[in-house]
Design a protein that fits this description.
The protein has 121 residues and is an alpha+beta fold. It is 17% helix and 17% strand.
Length: 121
């Protein structure tokens, strides 16, 4: 048996290694979660983004919502070219720049679509 996660209408959201491309149902789930390009400071809306495998498909990454992040074309290519890494915290994609961009490699996230909560004094 293969475990699957289903959406509200019974569509499969977790496909594992069965297929490389994200389905329309998975895209809808990513759009609801990410709302647009997840790269820090990008303002490109979800319809203009591609679904990116956080752990690359070529490195055995599954085609699952939890392993996906929306990226605009520019940032999708930048991730691959510049060797940025992505991980999630509580379902939110965080981006770690390579050492040649930030020697401290401080993780960053996009606050455009989901601003951080106000600071309490």
């Amino acid at each position: 048996m293969i475990p699957v996660l289903l959406g509200t209408n019974g569509e499969i959201l977790e496909l594992g290694r069965k297929t490389r491309l994200f389905t329309p149902a998975q895209r809808l789930a990513l759009t609801a979660r990410d709302q647009g390009c997840t790269f820090p400071n990008c303002t490109i809306p979800a319809p203009w983004c591609a679904a990116h495998h956080i752990t690359y498909w070529s490195r055995q990454g599954p085609t699952n919502v939890g392993n996906g992040a929306l990226l605009c074309s520019h940032h999708h290519h930048l991730i691959h070219k510049e060797q940025w890494t992505i991980h999630t915290r509580n379902g939110v994609p965080w981006f770690t720049p390579p050492r040649h961009i930030d020697p401290a490699q401080k993780p960053q996230q996009n606050h455009y679509f989901k601003p951080p909560p106000p600071q309490r004094e």
